[in-house]
Amino acid sequence: MVGAGISTPSGIPDFRSPGSGLYSNLLQYNIPYPEAIFELEFFFHNPKPFFTLAKQLYPGNYRPNITHYFFRLLHDKGLLLRLYTQNIDGLERVSGIPVSKLVEAHGTFASATCTVCRRSFPEKDWWADVMMDRVPCCPVCAGIVKPDIVFFGEPLPERFLLHVLDFPMADLLLILGTSLEVEPFASLSEAVGASVPRLLINRDLVGTFAWRPRSRDVVQLGDVVHSVERLVELLGWTKELQDLVQRETRKA
Ligand code: APR
After folding, report:
1. pLDDT over 70 for what percent of the chain?
2. Whole-angstrom Cα distance, residue 229 to residue 240?
3. Which residue's CA lies nearest to atom 4 of ligand 1?
4. What span, in angstroms and rounded, lies between the C-alpha atoms of 64 and 125?
5. Ligand 1 probe mutation, 179, 223, 231, most atoms within 8 A of CB
6. Model confidence pLDDT, tens digit, residues 91-102
7. Among protein residues, the one whose CA lies closest to atom 15 of ligand 1
């Protein structure tokens, strides 16, 4: 389970870190309160702030960091059952983790849907408008085309229901870079069996790790990159991970 904290080393602000988090830096968007930028009612009133933010977050502007490649290495070793991410930056896909192994619980910029006629559009059809500060509109009915990002109050993608199968099967749960503040994603941390070890790697203690810890919980507080490097060293995978990062960086 991961959140925006794994992408801050890639240069993408998270949401709630005091000062640097996105929700502390939305004054420029002239919105009534931070979360409004992801609320449908405000979006239909004024879609510009969201599309301005989307342009800033354009996936093509950022590269995965060692944390993303650590999960790719887990996949390459046949150890990754599934990666549940709250992130909309798409860096898990860029790191080479197959979409079949991903649950992008808060949606993705990889596709968009007309808010009127519900037609679906691949990103190539509308990112040009976003990059030129235009609100993308449906060529058929002129409705606003909204990227398939899950706004507050919207249902999560159907793939999120995979958790019903995955979490009871998991024999280890890793949680990285999330405040565990947003439901229903946060409650997944409670969905593994009582005897399953849970490892939290995060700057601060969050969720039930703080107020209802389990006997087999392991908590590593501090910078996510430093913590992942330490874990990889303990696993004896440092060289393998370095080679993977170099290969993928050269490809890019
Ligand atoms: N190293 C370790 N921890 C970090 C780092 C870092 N480099 N950067 C950030 N963090 C931690 C923060 O301290 C915080 O605990 O990652 C967590 C990020 O929390 P949030 O900013 O709340 O992000 P996230 O948990 O992904 O938010 C969940 O909220 O607004 C919605 O839809 C949005 O998906 C998002 C959801």
Report:
1. 100
2. 12
3. 5
4. 24
5. 179
6. 999 999 999 999
7. 179
* CB < 8 Å & 24+ apart, contacts of 138-144: 138/114, 140/114, 141/114, 141/116, 141/117, 142/116, 143/114, 143/115, 143/116, 143/117, 144/43, 144/44, 144/47, 144/114, 144/115, 144/116
Locus of tokens 């958790």: 163
Give whole-number Cα distances, 231 to 10, 39, 225, 244, 247, in Å: 19, 38, 10, 16, 21
Which secondary-structure segment (H or E) carries 244? Answer: helix 238-251
The reply to whether ligand 1 has any atom less than 6 angstroms from the CB of 179 is: yes
Q: Quick one: CA dihedral 202, 208, 211, 214, positive or negative?
A: negative
Q: Taking the CA atoms of the chain, what radius of gyration do you get in angstroms?
A: 19
pLDDT digits over 144-203, tens only?
Answer: 999 999 999 899 999 999 999 999 999 999 999 999 999 999 999 999 999 999 999 999
Confidence class for position 143, pLDDT limits 50, 70, 90? very high
* Degrees, nearest 5: CA angle 42-47-53: 105
Ligand 1 atom nearest residue 87's Cα: 34
CB 166 within 8 A of CB 184: no
* H or E element, residue 104: strand 102-104
193, 167 Cβ separation under 8 angstroms = no
